[in-house]
């Protein structure tokens, strides 16, 4: 089954549906209604300046697209930061990657049974933090988007 996502042109506000692009994909194209250029990124449709994208130099096109994406990411990052309270960030300092240079061996066969490493199990303290701080906010669309989008 194909996953579809509803989108809205930021130029003419016409709504439509597109197939959900792969995570991290950057898709540039025209709106089928108004023919203005847009970029689809992370499930959002952002306006582009058609004159710059069609007639600009390679550098101008690059800078314009980068500017649109940076503004979008800056807004997303600001929303995440605004959600970070001392209670939410209390356990963040405990995370330390075990091995930054790990590269999976693609020739290895996947394990057929799960092996539980008790040292990596969720602690009672972590569960308590989740139940007290995250779970009550799961229905808050701004909190949900800040964490999961």
SSE layout and pairing:
Layout lengths: L3 E5 L6 E5 L6 E5 L6 E5 L2 E4 L2 H6 L2 H26 L2 H4 L34 H11 L6 H8 L1
Helix pairs in contact: 2-5
General description of the model:
- With 149 residues, the chain is α+β, with helices and mostly antiparallel strands.
- It has a domain of 80 residues.
- The protein contains five helices and five strands; from the N terminus they run E-E-E-E-E-H-H-H-H-H.
- Strands 3-4-5 form a three-stranded antiparallel sheet, covered by helices on one side. It has a two-stranded antiparallel sheet with strand order 1-2.
- Strand 3 and strand 4 form a beta hairpin.
- Helix 2 packs across helix 5.
- About 5% of the residues have low confidence.
Brief characterization of the structure:
The chain is an alpha+beta fold and 149 residues long. The protein contains five helices and five strands; from the N terminus they run βββββααααα. The protein has helices at 50-55, 58-83, 86-89, 124-134, 141-148; strands at residues 4-8, 15-19, 26-30, 37-41, 44-47.
């Amino acid at each position: 089954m194909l996953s579809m996502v509803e989108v809205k042109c930021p130029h003419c506000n016409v709504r439509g549906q597109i197939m959900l692009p792969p995570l991290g994909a950057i898709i540039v194209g025209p709106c089928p209604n108004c023919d203005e250029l847009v970029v689809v990124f992370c499930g959002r449709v952002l306006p582009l300046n058609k004159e710059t994208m069609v007639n600009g130099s390679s550098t101008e096109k690059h800078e314009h697209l980068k500017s649109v994406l940076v503004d979008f990411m800056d807004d997303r990052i600001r929303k995440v930061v605004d959600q970070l309270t001392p209670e939410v960030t209390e356990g963040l300092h405990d995370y330390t990657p075990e091995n930054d240079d790990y590269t999976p061996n693609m020739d290895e066969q996947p394990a057929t049974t799960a092996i539980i490493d008790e040292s990596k199990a969720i602690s009672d303290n972590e569960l308590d933090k989740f139940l007290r701080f995250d779970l009550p906010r799961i229905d808050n669309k701004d909190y949900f988007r800040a964490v999961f989008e």
